[in-house]
Specification:
With about 240 residues, this protein is an alpha/beta fold. The chain has a domain of about 160 residues: Rossmann fold (3-Layer(aba) Sandwich). It is built from six helices and nine strands, in the order E-E-H-H-E-H-E-H-E-E-H-E-E-E-H. A seven-stranded mixed sheet has the order 5-4-3-6-7-9-8, with helices on both faces. A two-stranded antiparallel sheet has the order 1-2.
Length: about 240
């Protein structure tokens, strides 16, 4: 397991001595406790005031709606991830990775480009008494390195990211991996390329999220028509 020891004061590093984090049950997934900001915007401002410079937003200090519904879905359907090699992409707080570990996944790796998100994942996994490995860096040019199940919550937040993410998820599916996406219906969510697996009403969102969000979906990539026909043919179904 790779350790995520905090580096020495990168731009994304939360300054020492900042309060405002609390260990609390996640509203929609009370089985899991995370270190979350009481008010993410205020927490971010305190970080910047302490550092005396602009810092990357602490996205890891919030439980985002797409991650909450993915975690809920896994806990309600443990057979989806039990016994599998799981990759939680853009893991943030580690909520989805922790849910997968709680279902009995064979291994769980949480990935994020923010080293402090990885540190938060390790801390949160420890508080929930589950093993989660961490991996830093941008993985979107690969195909998840053989993971059986790729989980991606709240990743379609910009057009550029949506384009890269779709290409990545398509490579995972082409090599035989499974993918689940969690999203509250953001503008860049490519609904035409995804099919809905489950839809959940949500409690009131936190300060980082759109206050109008009241529902989020779990989705999976839909097979392109050519591949769908090939799969039906190989299974003996109608062409």
């Amino acid at each position: 397991m790779e350790r995520a020891d905090p580096p020495r004061r990168p731009r994304s590093a939360p300054p020492r001595g900042i309060d405002g984090l609390r260990l609390t049950a996640v509203p929609f997934v009370p089985e899991i406790r995370l270190h979350l900001a009481e008010d993410p915007i205020v927490f971010w401002a305190r970080m910047e005031a302490e550092a005396g410079t602009a810092l990357t937003p602490p996205f890891w200090a919030s439980a985002w709606p797409g991650g909450q519904v993915l975690a809920r879905y896994l806990l309600d359907h443990p057979q989806v991830s039990a016994g599998r090699q799981v990759l939680d992409l853009a893991a943030g707080s580690g909520l989805v990775a922790i849910a997968a570990a709680l279902t009995g996944a064979r291994s769980v790796t949480a990935n994020d480009i923010d080293p402090y998100a990885l540190a938060a994942v390790i801390l949160n996994a420890r508080c929930n008494a589950v093993p989660v490995a961490v991996r830093g860096g941008d993985l979107l040019d690969g195909d998840a390195d053989g993971a059986d199940l790729v989980l991606a919550g709240d990743v379609f937040y910009s057009a550029a990211m949506a384009e890269r993410m779709l290409a990545f998820l398509d490579r995972v599916v082409r090599r035989g991996g499974q993918v689940l996406v969690g999203d509250p219906g953001r503008t860049n969510l490519p609904r035409g390329r995804l099919s809905t697996v489950a839809s959940y009403p949500l409690p009131e969102a936190d300060a980082f999220a759109d206050s109008q969000i009241r529902r989020a979906d779990v989705l999976r990539p839909a097979l392109a028509p050519g591949r769908a026909a090939a799969r039906r043919s190989s299974q003996g179904g109608p062409g």
